[in-house]
Write a structure and sequence with these properties.
Pfam families: Acyl-CoA_dh_1 (PF00441), Acyl-CoA_dh_M (PF02770), Acyl-CoA_dh_N (PF02771). The chain is an alpha+beta fold. It folds into three domains: 18-133, Butyryl-Coa Dehydrogenase, subunit A, domain 1 (Orthogonal Bundle); 139-246, Butyryl-CoA Dehydrogenase, subunit A, domain 2, CATH 2.40.110.10; 249-393, Butyryl-CoA Dehydrogenase, subunit A, domain 3. Helices cover 49% and strands 15% of the residues. The protein contains eleven helices and ten strands. It has helices at residues 24-40, 45-51, 57-66, 84-97, 99-119, 122-133, 248-282, 294-322, 328-353, 364-376, 381-393, and strands spanning 139-142, 158-162, 165-176, 183-189, 197-203, 209-210, 225-235, 240-245, 284-285, 288-289. A four-stranded mixed β-sheet has the order 1-4-5-8. α1 (24-40) packs parallel to α4 (84-97) and α7 (248-282) runs antiparallel to α10 (364-376). The radius of gyration is 22 Å and the shape is globular.
């Protein structure tokens, strides 16, 4: 650049120019998802959250299918075949509306659909994926159990052979989409010599299957969360995911979903940060807007630095995924950093809004309480710290 070249103006919404890294198609997808969320979620989300409901979830799923947001990074079977970066941008925009909406999409696409797409038979893919991509069929993913979260190898759900069939018995807990799902991907212990843990594609109308909804949540309130109960659910031999044996199957699904969280957490952080900036420019104390005081500006500057560092990290990991070079340890790096920083941004934003920060008139407290769940699910802080610790030292401290 010559000395006489004119620099582009400073953009407060993109202070380090991350948009320069995005292709026109990336920006178009981001705009589509942002507009959908602004039209269909933001006008209603405070009410849904206060009521602890996600009404019209089936209609929302069909609309998300119509814009290509379900299983969007998968190829074929009605899926959009988008890049990892494009999927990440969609996750950011969805979670900027609410974590519950992003969770709906993540569980559908990155867990249930991804499991079938990567590990399923051609018959399973043809049967389930087109309807799931369109939002006509909602899926859920059953791994976590009441007594086994961070240690899924200890799961008690069990599938035993009975002739050519399998009989599935057990319970799963904290399952997003469970009560409205038409299909569940359930992981269970078996006595199969190929691999003790196997995945099963379970139609939720099967006899013995039920999914009571979990109520009284103070986080992810605008999300359907359920328990899965399998009471001797009889499944045909072709219900097994043929290409998944052992824990590698479900853990690879979780890694794919965690990648979306790396982006999504920054959406919650951005919404809270933007609310704080707007409030700081209009709320007056001591004769001027509080945004004109040094302490407030210091908070805003620190939040902006962490927010856009997090988005830059997410973009970098997305490029690695698109290049086939993203390791699970790197996903742990991103989830650990971005969710932790997002919560801190929400808490700091709340201090700028003062008492108004706890009101549902503003999004800050809603995002902060949602992120308390995001911090824990799909790998707690401690688990991701230990993943990185093992990678850094070569020593396993899990036990």
């Amino acid at each position: 650049m010559s000395a006489t070249s004119k620099l582009p103006p400073f953009d407060p919404s993109d202070p380090i120019g991350i948009d320069d890294l995005l292709a026109p198609e990336d920006l178009a997808i981001r705009e589509t998802v942002r507009n959908w969320a602004a039209d269909r979620v933001l006008p209603h989300i405070a009410d849904w959250y206060e009521r602890g409901e996600l009404p019209g979830i089936r209609e929302l799923a069909r609309e998300l299918g119509s814009i290509g947001a379900l299983g969007m990074s998968l190829e074929g079977y009605g899926c959009a075949g988008a890049s990892a970066v494009q999927y990440g941008l969609a996750c950011l925009e969805l979670e900027a509306a609410d974590s519950g909406i992003r969770s709906l999409v993540s569980v559908q696409g990155s867990l249930a659909m991804y499991a079938i797409h990567r590990f399923g038979s051609e018959e399973q893919k043809q049967r389930w994926l087109p309807g799931m991509a369109a939002g006509e069929i909602i899926g859920c993913f059953g791994l976590t159990e009441p007594d086994h979260g961070s240690d899924p190898a200890g799961m008690r759900t069990y599938a035993k052979k009975d002739g050519a069939d399998w009989v599935l018995t057990g319970r799963k807990m904290w399952i997003t989409n469970g009560s409205v799902a038409g299909v569940a991907v359930v992981w269970a212990q078996t006595d199969d010599g190929i691999g003790a843990i196997r995945g099963f594609v379970v139609p939720t109308d099967a006899a013995g299957f039920s999914a009571p909804e979990i109520k009284h949540k103070w986080s992810l309130r605008a999300s359907v969360t359920s328990e899965l109960v399998m009471d001797e659910v009889r499944l045909p031999a072709d219900a097994v995911l043929p290409e998944a044996t052992g824990l590698k199957g479900p853990l690879s699904c979780l890694s794919h979903a965690r990648y979306g969280i790396v982006w999504g957490a920054m959406g919650a952080a951005r919404a809270s940060f933007e609310a704080a900036v707007d409030y700081a420019k209009t709320r007056e104390q001591f004769g001027k807007p509080i945004g004109g005081f040094q302490l407030t500006q210091a908070k805003l500057a620190d939040m902006a630095v962490e927010l856009h560092k997090g988005i830059l990290l997410a973009h970098h990991l997305g490029q690695r995924m698109d290049a086939g070079r993203l390791r699970p340890e790197q996903v742990s790096f991103g989830k650990l950093n971005n969710v932790r920083e997002a919560i801190e941004i929400c808490r700091t934003s709340r201090t700028i809004l003062g008492a108004n920060g706890i009101s549902l008139e503003y999004p800050v407290m809603r995002h902060a309480t949602n992120l308390e769940s995001v911090l824990t699910y799909e790998g707690t802080v401690e688990m991701h710290q230990l993943v990185l610790g093992k990678a850094l030292t070569g020593l396993d401290a899990f036990r």
